[in-house]
Amino acid sequence: MNLLDYILPFLLALGILIVVHEFGHYAVARLCGVKVLRFSLGFGKPLLVRKAGADQTEWVLAAFPLGGYVKMLDEREAPVAAHELHRAFNRQSVWRRIAVVAAGPLANFVLAIALYWGLYTGGVEELRPRLAAPEAATSAAHAGLQGGELVRSINGEAVETWQEFRWKLLNLALDKQVVTVETVNASREIGFHKLDLAGVVVDQAERDVTAQLGLQLQRPKLPAVLGRLSASGAAEAAGLREGDRVVRIGDSSVELWTDLVTIVRDAPGRTLEFEVLRDGRALRFQVTPSAVDDNGRSVGRIGAALADAEDQREQMFVTVRYGLGEALSKGIGQTWDTAAMSVSVMGRMIVGEVSVKNLSGPVTIADFAGQSARMGWAHYIKFLALISISLGVLNLMPVPVLDGGHLLYYVIEIIKGGPVSERAMEIGQQIGMALLAALMAFAFYNDINRLVAS
């Protein structure tokens, strides 16, 4: 993949999330009778400006896309005509101001719920939580977990997918708990295993939580049978066909699809002799894998997919689908759990229980955007939902310059019976800008460290 394969999905995601967030502010401001002067996607010099509506609101696309804002009529920023004073933001009741400010983060949560609801209604294909044999001397091995077992629940909570299994483990690992994992094996025997999470380190610089525990997803042994071929791929150009069974490449025998993939990946641009079985006959072909960039490494590809094996597919995948009402409930639950997890991790970072290396900046987010887009639309939608929730949580932090900081001012106003002084707000803004700049710098530093480490 080239750089655009990461930048374009990142910019698309960023644009969607910013527009939704700012539209939350805009819509509630209009409902509260506040005059909106400008809706801007991005900061800095306006590239495109269009005026629309009875108030001639400016709709702006600006040069620097990492953010946006809604500018409202406000006496603190410019003189307001007497006949429009009732439409100034600063003249609204504290409860209306709270509604306008809170609407941005809430819009991000609503977007996440809608995305999850759409996925669960339409159905999304997920990996089953079927375990491979655990590594020796790991927590999973000590717990008695065995290869081929299917996870049914953790601490009594049902588990349907591998992703759900990993998510629940991550949540429980924050508290270093000993959890009960319920499994069922091929003989339909149910087992209960005590899995100790005390040794797990929640840190992006470390291995995944499941890997630390010795847990791996079982990967079936699939024969090296070619499926759909790319029209411009090396396999079709060499004369290979769908349904060919590869038995040898060069001097190496090939039994499994993983054998084929390993040999091809290690031979970009180098001609290989494929021996295949076709209709009972052994045939040989000269195939030159194309050189493709994979995260900075040149690897070989021949443009051939694995033949669909329905029996193996049934063992590996499950389609998660719910009715409209249950899908909505699942979407709300997923959004709530993710937001609560984000808040918990932030709190644990402050007290030192979780490493600050878990902070991610735009480089890491762009990397995830590109990877999720490459994996398919369902994964990209999940990425959008996750980042939308993170944006909502971040903006609710009680830091001046963020929405949460303004909400904090309004809570103080309610308690003391009057607005916070202009001087206090000015000092708060300066502190907030410094904190936000430090947070962004540290997140970017983590991004660079991850790039160097990888």
Automatic annotation (TrEMBL):
Keyword Hydrolase: yes
EC assignment: 3.4.24.-
Topological category with respect to the lipid bilayer: Multi-pass membrane protein
Pfam family name, one: Peptidase_M50
This protein's UniProt keywords: Hydrolase, Membrane, Metal-binding, Metalloprotease, Protease, Transmembrane, Transmembrane helix, Zinc
A GO term for molecular function: metalloendopeptidase activity
Domain of life: Bacteria
GO biological process terms on file: proteolysis
Gene Ontology CC annotations of this record: membrane
Family: Belongs to the peptidase M50B family.
Name assigned to this protein: Zinc metalloprotease
Organism: Zoogloea ramigera
Phylogenetic classification of the source organism: Bacteria, Pseudomonadati, Pseudomonadota, Betaproteobacteria, Rhodocyclales
